[in-house]
């Protein structure tokens, strides 16, 4: 085969190729023009095959080359045509020379056309959404495309119909970030490099680059689809006591954010409802893996205790504590990653850890000689339960060698001596006292003293909120409280902790007159003469609480004391206000008590009845000889019935 591609091909299979003139704008096109070139078809004029004796050569024309003459072909022997030999061979050589010239013209023409097509940064013939961008610079293309899209704004703001399974709906482009990224679209169109035939004859409609917020789209689509298919069952292994119970995984069928986003990007501008695919999603952990975890980890883990050694002694972790702290639940993708939960482990081992740990004590203050004095805190040591939880995982699958070493770490007090010294607790800013009857021998009095001792010495940092329920926890028999009358459903009945409301009222008034922020309190349903009206508070575990916030720039020390007939709460800090006082409105809407007879018995406590009324109390903040702030408190007391037994 020659460099011009002269292969011997049966005459009836050779194509006849026509090269027509290429029209290019006059200022850009080359000066050479190619007209028709007809290749040999394999038959001479006399009807014989090529090279056959007696054959007559056919004519090939090349008008632009300036010749039109018979071209000799090889003779029957295949020898090249030459003077004194058959003319057909000489004619063929001229055809090949003419073909080479034509090929050179094509190359020159292609180069000229390429230069024409790449004039500008966007190739000529390129359009996006029927907007011609060809031959423009990137900046010009961006401006042109954006202007065209703005003129057709309604097309790109109209709600898009979507179909998800059997459900249909619409999404608003602006709400899900669905838009044409003009800059990215022009960049992609500029980066395209067309082939030779596209340069000569073609044009190209480039796809726009569409953006969408997959997360917002997913939220909107879920409003449409609801619970179309089965929801995923995440695998897990739970414990009933110390018996592992497997939960096997099941796949879900629904939408997936990335697939939904692709569907909207691809189909948004197609003029049809966008079909959002429903995808079946399988949890990462299989049924076989769940069974393997039960066999190789869950059952061996609770087969026996684990011994823990430490510098302060040893203790055991019983199977029940292991079952409570071993976590074998899956994440959102359905993957189970076994671990021991540090917090659950500590909660399951209070008595065991108490044998080897030393609790730190915060620095605090006490009132000595009518002056506040700092009481230094002490450090402690605790088991590093994070390290213990990690080390437990290594021995839980084992039948033997179930021993781990606990690490003890030093624990500093949360409040240090320096912390107390910086708080500015230097003077008593308020004090309040309430009286009780029955002496210290009565159950009610003992409850008042018990809660007062619990709160005594508490330091509240600046910006911190104090909760009485949060400080004392549940007040039950185990904490030293006894049965005494409490109000339940509007009447007095015996109940554990009766009398703690009197301490609550005393503490509330001490913080009230210290000018501290009231966060939560609730007065009693009935008014009792031992309390100031309106500015008093009850308490009941766990629903009714008393809270105040230390909104001053100084620390607050709560100091409590008691006698056989009274309890006192004093607040020590640094004064912010000169004083705090109360003004009352007259009582209004007064109601009289009803008489109610109850069955006699230990649960019946008779009362004389108390009038009901509504009243306002105004807290006045004084500074620099004037009132700088007022707060209004209002309460409506019910008339307490007169209960008689029998």
From TrEMBL:
Residues 288-404 form the YoaR-like putative peptidoglycan binding domain. This is Vanomycin resistance protein VanB. The chain crosses the membrane at residues 95-119. The keyword Transmembrane helix applies. Keywords: Membrane, Transmembrane, Transmembrane helix. The keyword Transmembrane applies. InterPro entries: Glycopeptide_resist_protein, Vancomycin_resist_VanW, YoaR-like_PG-bd. Residues 68-87 are annotated as: Disordered. Residues 72-87 have a biased composition (Low complexity).
């Amino acid at each position: 085969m020659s460099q011009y591609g002269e292969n011997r091909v049966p005459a009836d299979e050779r194509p006849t190729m026509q090269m027509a003139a290429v029209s290019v704008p006059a200022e850009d096109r080359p000066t050479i023009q190619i007209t028709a070139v007809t290749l040999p078809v394999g038959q001479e004029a006399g009807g014989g095959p090529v090279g056959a004796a007696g054959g007559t050569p056919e004519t090939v024309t090349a008008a632009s080359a300036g010749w039109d003459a018979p071209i000799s072909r090889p003779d029957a022997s295949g020898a090249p045509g030459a003077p004194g030999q058959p003319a057909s061979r000489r004619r063929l050589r001229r055809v090949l020379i003419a073909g080479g010239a034509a090929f050179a013209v094509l190359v020159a023409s292609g180069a000229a056309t390429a230069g024409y097509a790449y004039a500008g940064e966007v190739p000529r013939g390129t359009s996006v959404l029927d907007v011609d961008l060809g031959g423009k610079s990137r900046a010009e293309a961006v401006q042109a495309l954006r202007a065209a899209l703005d003129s057709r704004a309604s097309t790109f703001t109209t709600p898009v119909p979507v179909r998800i399974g059997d459900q249909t709906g619409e999404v608003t482009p602006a709400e899900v970030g669905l838009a044409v990224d003009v800059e990215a679209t022009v960049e992609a169109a500029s980066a395209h490099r067309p082939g030779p035939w596209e340069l000569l004859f073609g044009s190209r409609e480039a796809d726009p680059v569409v953006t969408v917020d997959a997360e917002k789209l997913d939220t909107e689509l879920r409003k449409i689809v609801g619970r179309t298919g089965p929801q995923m069952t995440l695998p897990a292994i739970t414990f009933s006591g110390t018996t592992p119970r497997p939960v096997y995984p099941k796949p879900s069928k629904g939408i997936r954010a990335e697939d939904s986003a692709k569907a909207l990007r691809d189909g948004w501008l197609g003029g049809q409802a966008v079909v959002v695919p429903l995808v079946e999603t399988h949890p990462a952990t299989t049924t076989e893996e769940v069974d393997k975890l039960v066999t190789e980890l869950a059952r061996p883990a609770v087969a026996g205790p684990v011994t823990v050694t430490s510098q302060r002694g040893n203790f055991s972790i019983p199977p029940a504590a292991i079952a409570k702290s071993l976590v074998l639940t899956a994440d959102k993708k359905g993957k189970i990653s076994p671990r021991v939960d540090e917090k659950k482990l500590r909660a399951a081992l209070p008595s065991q850890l108490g044998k080897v740990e030393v609790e730190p004590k915060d620095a605090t203050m006490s009132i000595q000689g009518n002056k506040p004095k700092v009481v230094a805190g002490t450090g402690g040591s605790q088991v590093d339960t994070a390290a213990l939880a990690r080390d437990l995982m290594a021995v839980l699958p084992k039948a033997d060698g179930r021993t781990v070493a606990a690490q003890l770490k030093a624990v500093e007090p949360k409040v240090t001596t320096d912390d107390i010294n910086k708080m500015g607790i230097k003077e008593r800013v308020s004090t309040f006292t309430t009286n009780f009857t029955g002496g210290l021998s009565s159950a009610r009095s003992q409850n008042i003293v018990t809660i007062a001792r619990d709160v005594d010495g508490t330091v509240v940092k600046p910006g911190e909120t104090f909760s009485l329920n949060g400080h004392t926890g549940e007040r039950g028999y185990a904490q030293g409280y006894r049965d005494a009358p409490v109000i339940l459903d509007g009447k007095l009945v015996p109940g554990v902790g009766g009398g703690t409301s009197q301490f609550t009222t005393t503490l509330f008034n001490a913080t009230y007159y210290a000018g501290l922020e009231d966060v939560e309190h609730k007065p009693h349903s009935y008014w009792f003469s031992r309390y100031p009206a309106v500015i008093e508070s009850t308490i009941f575990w766990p629903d009714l609480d008393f809270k105040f916030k230390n909104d001053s720039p100084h620390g607050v020390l709560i100091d409590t004391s008691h006698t056989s007939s009274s309890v006192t709460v004093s607040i020590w800090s640094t004064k912010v206000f000169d004083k705090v006082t109360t003004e009352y409105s007259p009582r209004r809407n007064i109601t009289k008590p009803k008489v109610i007879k109850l069955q006699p018995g230990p649960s019946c406590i008779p009362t004389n009845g108390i009038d009901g009324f509504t009243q306002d109390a105004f807290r006045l903040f004084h500074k620099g000889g004037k009132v700088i702030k007022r707060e209004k408190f209002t309460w409506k007391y019910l008339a307490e019935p007169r209960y008689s037994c029998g």
